[in-house]
From TrEMBL:
Keywords, alphabetical: Hydrolase
Keyword Disulfide bond: no
Matches recorded under InterPro entries: AB_hydrolase_1, AB_hydrolase_fold, Sec-Metab_Biosynth_Hydrolase
PANTHER family the UniProt entry points to: AB HYDROLASE-1 DOMAIN-CONTAINING PROTEIN-RELATED, ESTERASE_LIPASE_THIOESTERASE DOMAIN-CONTAINING PROTEIN
Signal peptide bounds: none
Highest classification ranks of the organism: Bacteria, Bacillati, Actinomycetota, Actinomycetes, Micrococcales
SUPFAM superfamilies, A to Z: alpha/beta-Hydrolases (SSF53474)
Residue ranges the record marks as coiled coil: none
Gene Ontology MF annotations: hydrolase activity
Record domain AB hydrolase-1: where: 3-224
Protein name, per record: Alpha/beta hydrolase
Amino acid sequence: MDIILVPGFWLDASSWSGVTPALKAAGHTVHPLTLPGLESVEADRSGIGLQDHIDAVVQAIDGLDRPVVLVGHSGGGGIAYGAVDARPDRVLRTIYVDAGPLGEGAAINDGLPVTGGEVPLPDWDAFDDADLIGLTEPLKEQFRAISRPEPAAVTRDRQQLSNERRWDVPATVIACEFPASVLQQLIEDGHPYVSELARISDVDFVDLPTGHWPQFTRPAELAQLILVAVDASGPA
């Protein structure tokens, strides 16, 4: 199976390095992405928006000969969902890692502070305690060392969707900060936070109790949950 890994804000392909060995050992071909503007700290991020990141994922899909599984972490979940909307017939399953699909007209996170057209990784005290569970001081240092500023427009641009066949692509939600039971209750209550997720016809939920960055805090367990979801997707 071809598995495309879409990182969240401030991260590049290397952020998946703790997860990819187990996926490869299981016989899968893994494609961790570095999205436009995240190539280096010095990269030119001017003019890069949400659609550019979605287009990069679509390009990765189009470059492969068989259907794929998409994995999106955090803000990468909204980006992956934009690619599902563009290529619903090429995606077997979308796996959301502490993430979910981004609905029409929504922004990933337009509350992050912008400096010079980009969003640097904030200080740790800007995050909720739940975000940081399991993120030890060495892991924080590792994270910050590989982090790159996020293009500001990616955080603020509004999602544009057009293909209702996106709702037919099965999804798996790996719930970290909030238990799956909470997300399921929100869906039952009709909460707008999960309105797009509620429209997907086939969704599995699984818990991985940790903070917002399980690829750092619990990489082995995350890899195993991804493998279970991939196996449930059937043959490519």
